[in-house]
Amino acid sequence: MTSSRDRAALIDRRLAELYPETPIPLDHTSPYTLLIAVLLSAQCTDKRVNLQTPGLFAKADNPRDMVKLSVAKINSFVRPCGLAPRKAQAIRRLSELLLENHHGEVPRTFAELEALPGVGHKTASVVMAQAFGVPAFPVDTHIHRLAQRWKLTNGRSVEQTERDLKRLFPREHWNALHLRIIFYGREHCTARGCDGMVCGLCRELFPERRRAVRVHKT
Question: What does the pLDDT average to over 143-168?
Answer without folding.
Answer: 94
